[in-house]
Specification:
With 391 residues, the protein is an alpha+beta fold. It folds into four domains: 9-102, Orthogonal Bundle (DNA polymerase, domain 1), CATH 1.10.150.110; 106-145, DNA polymerase, domain 1 (Orthogonal Bundle), CATH 1.10.150; 164-323, Beta Polymerase, domain 2 (2-Layer Sandwich), CATH 3.30.460; 325-388, DNA polymerase, thumb domain (Beta Polymerase, domain 3), CATH 3.30.210. It is built from 16 helices and ten strands. It has helices at 28-43, 47-60, 81-93, 97-104, 106-115, 122-130, 136-141, 148-155, 157-160, 166-183, 193-196, 220-230, 272-275, 324-332, 335-349, 372-378; strands spanning 164-165, 188-191, 201-202, 205-210, 234-240, 262-271, 309-318, 351-353, 358-360, 365-366. Strands 2-4-7-6-5 form a five-stranded mixed sheet, sandwiched between helices. A three-stranded antiparallel sheet has the order 8-9-10. Helix 1 (28-43) packs antiparallel against helix 2, helix 5 packs across helix 6 (122-130) and helix 10 packs across helix 12 (220-230). The chain is globular, with a radius of gyration of 22 Å. The two termini are 31 Å apart. Bound molecules: guanosine-5'-triphosphate (GTP) and manganese (II) ion (2 copies). One manganese (II) ion (MN) binds next to helix 11. One manganese (II) ion binds at residues 193-194, 202, 204, 206.
């Protein structure tokens, strides 16, 4: 009899924000299966079910070795009947019928492909699916009216469906750094999202921008965008206020100065030589790479010419210095980790956490913090570094 893996004390904790979840773990087959079911539930707009599967996958990522028998799971939280059933089947037969039939179902595959287009959410994907569309090229050929994000999504789909490498992320970082220094010297940029958690690749690159002098960051985003536009770097951009406060489990009391917050969803045109770590080739105002005739918005034909440059999704967020710690914590992820932090704050501490502030509902006041460490401490949580937030 092989001994059960010792379950680390922290794996018995039920909130992901109480645990260390590294990027690499020992249960990839099981977590991939549970995450597929989670994704399928999300595509079917069953949020509760989706989160339940995701939490089950997350707990398995904290274990020090591969699960081999059901007994190995004793004492672990977050494993509901359905998840346990899937795990049991996989341990016994090597795969789960439910997972495999979902993976191969036309609906799952189509909704995944359609929501994989930038600008397309679950509702739109479902409507298109009912209308007979199955993949991005169906959309391109169809008569569907597309908003400008979706047009860009279809146009650059081939590039955007490729993973972004760390080298490409760093090359984009240099461009953003240069843009920010041009329009506001002294401003600071920080790589957030998956790359900050140590991922080797991402679906996009996320940056947080601030300035140590409170107030200096106001109006920064439009200037940065304008500079990038004159350099010919932007294929698409949409600047908005941060919409986090509209989410269901957002804080009940929005901070008064939230309207200064800005974010930008964009698509960069990245020179392939820079993405490979080469010099920052620059021709101000001109084409960064070759590939003439690929002007955005000209025609809605998916583009295949990708010799000189690559379209890359980039998210930019500007934060006042006083909110920087909250913004950094809120934009580093993972999504489940963020969700669990807010749930912990609300359920266990009677507090409301957002990427702007932390409000203590009992004391009826905001709790200040300038670092992530201080926020964890306000929340009564042990500090978890970014590399262990991969829930
Ligand atoms: P990949 O990009 O796939 O590598 O993973 P990622 O973890 O970087 O995901 P993503 O870029 O989608 O999100 C990065 C972080 O931003 C996550 O923590 C999200 O929770 C967070 N995020 C995404 N949208 C919003 C938003 O509208 N408001 C706030 N405050 N955070 C958001
Ligand atoms: Mn990201
Ligand atoms: Mn992002």
């Amino acid at each position: 009899l092989t001994p059960s893996p010792v379950i680390p004390k922290s794996s018995a904790k039920s909130y992901a924000c109480q645990r260390r979840t590294p990027l690499k773990h020992h249960n990839l087959l099981l977590t991939e299966a549970l995450e597929l079911l989670s994704e399928n539930a999300e595509l079917g707009e069953n949020e509760g079910r989706s989160v339940a599967f995701r939490r089950a996958a997350a707990i398995l990522k904290t274990l020090p070795q591969a699960v081999q028998r059901m007994e190995d799971l004793q004492g672990l939280p977050c494993l509901g009947d359905h998840s346990l059933r899937v795990i049991k089947e996989m341990l016994e037969y090597g795969s789960s019928q439910e997972v495999e039939s979902t993976r191969h179902s036309e609906q799952y595959q189509a909704l995944k492909a359609l929501t994989g287009i930038f600008g397309v959410g679950v509702k739109t994907a479902e409507r298109w699916f009912r209308g007979g569309l199955r993949c991005p090229s169906d959309v391109a050929k169809s008569e569907e009216r597309l908003n400008s994000a979706q047009q860009a999504g279809v146009l650059y789909h081939e590039d955007l469906s490729q993973r972004v490498s760390r080298a490409e992320a760093d090359a984009i970082g240099q461009i953003v750094e240069r843009a920010v220094q041009e329009v506001l010297p002294g401003a600071q940029i920080t790589l957030t999202g998956g790359f900050r958690r140590g991922k080797e690749t991402g679906h996009d690159v996320d940056f947080l921008i601030t300035h140590p002098e409170e107030g200096k960051e106001e109006g920064l985003m439009p200037k940065v965008i304008q500079w990038l536009e004159t350099q010919g770097v932007l294929l698409y951009q949409k600047t908005t206020r941060n919409s986090y406060l509209e989410s269901k489990d957002g804080p009940s009391r929005p901070p008064h100065n939230m309207d200064r917050f800005e974010r930008c969803f964009s698509i960069f045109k990245l020179d392939r030589s820079t993405g490979e770590g080469g010099p920052l080739a620059q021709a101000p105002g001109g084409e960064v790479g070759g590939c003439e005739g690929r002007a955005p918005g000209s025609e809605l034909e998916p583009q295949h010419c990708s010799t000189g440059w690559k379209a890359v999704r980039v998210d930019l967020v500007v934060s006042p210095y006083s909110q920087f710690g909250f913004a950094l914590l809120g934009w580093t992820g993972s999504k489940l980790f963020e969700r669990e932090l807010r749930r912990w704050a609300g359920k266990e501490k009677n507090m409301s956490l957002s990427s702007h502030a932390l409000y203590d509902n009992s004391q009826r006041r905001y709790l200040r913090a300038s670092t992530e460490e201080e926020i964890f401490s306000h929340l009564g949580l042990e500090y978890i570094p970014p590399c262990d937030r991969n829930a």
